[in-house]
Amino acid sequence: MINKLKTLNATTLRWLKISVFILALIPLARLIIAAYYDSLGANPIEKITHRTGYWTLAFLLITLSITPLRRLTGWSWLARFRRMIGLFSFFYASLHFLTYLVLDQFFDWANISKDIIKRPYITVGFAAFVLLIPLAITSTNRMTKWLGGKRWRLLHRLIYPIAIGGVLHFWWLVKKDITEPLNFTLLLSILFTIRLVYWWRGIVKS
Amino acid sequence: MTVYKLPPIYSSEITPRDLFHDRRRFMQLAAGASLTALLPQNAFAGEPLAGVTKSTDRLIDELTPLKDITSYNNFYEFGTGKEDPAKNAGSLKTRPWTITVEGEANKPKVFDIEELLKLAPLEERIYRLRCVEAWSMVIPWVGYSLAALLKQVEPTGNAKFVEFISLHDPEQMQGQKSPTLNWPYKEGLRIDEAMHPLTLLAVGLYGEVLPNQNGAPIRIVVPWKYGFKSAKSIVKIRLVEKMPMSSWMEANSNEYGFYSNVNPDVDHARWSQAKERRIGEFLKRPTLPFNGYSEQVASLYSGMDLTKNF
Question: Which of A139, B31, B139, B153 is the most exposed, fewest CB within 10 Å of its CB?
């Protein structure tokens, strides 16, 4: 089974890409539908903030799991999904930030700057979001070529501190129930461990 | 019989006259009152409570809709999600129920819930509720001053503090199967805070029996403190000499102090308390010192450093 899926023809790949694209829009669609039917609960702004934040981290971790999965299964076509899913993480991060900026703070710049300086969870979350921007900008084929593979890869290693920052942001804002940030942390540790193992094996071999 | 006169609530929003007089609710209440006079006492959320003196205040904030009050709760005994209590509190059995009042008292006593419901005339009290998470509501509670209950047991001179203990039964309260907090939930007040006429022993809201997710069958409401100070589903009240530890102090004493008075100038360790989002409103509003009850309670803390005694 695993070997059978090592290569995909172009049509299958295209349909798979379209499907993943649509799937990735479901969290947003659910929010819009809930908003339309007024079923976001008593504190809709809080719910929108939490959901978009949750999906930012979820897509970030999916992005980070593509390379290990590709290596473990040998399905090289998986790499073709990395950019799209990474951009979806940026998309939900942007919605998350806009929710904070517009709905939560309503452009209260004085308070926002105070938040960013004084509140560690906002400091680290904001920093992670800012660091995502160059990665999104340099995600196109043209930009990759312009940067050159080596520099591009170096720049895109920013995803590691971004992921750590994103998970920390979640830890630091939770009042008491740490279940969800703990799950994200465990997943992230597994992904980092796999990378370390491959990296170590690379050193040993060479 | 004297009914405690509520202090005015200053606000830009004044409930319209016709809404305030709300004929339909009055009729329902009156009908419910005459019915419940004939029937044995019942205890279902949504059942009207008999003989409630309606609040006569004109200057009131707009009430938070019942739907929001009963679907957005912090009641970790039923789960940590805001919607969990409404989903899971159905398993709580509110009858039979007793509250043991013990400790530094001349006449300690176990009170049955039916007795508590008749201990003093039930009044409607419209209070602001400010959560430590920076959101707020306006809730028409039904109950009477906690002082009425405490006076019955005659606290001794050694009774400097009051400890409240909530029900501990993981079978009824599924959230207690996780060690989110040290169960049972414990809270405490200084004796003068507990005896203050604003401190309410609540058995209902919106003229009806208290819904389970809001702390049925009986809870405390301390309107000038963050919401978690108002213990829910109480089974024991202890009069003590030393300051008791609360569950939240045990969880994180850097973030949750014994007093926990609403104070826009003292931030939570991780977020600002300067503003709050009133449920149902878009823009945040400034938080008021002592949640707007300064005139009534600020004197309790004169000379105290409220930054240290947060």
Answer: B31
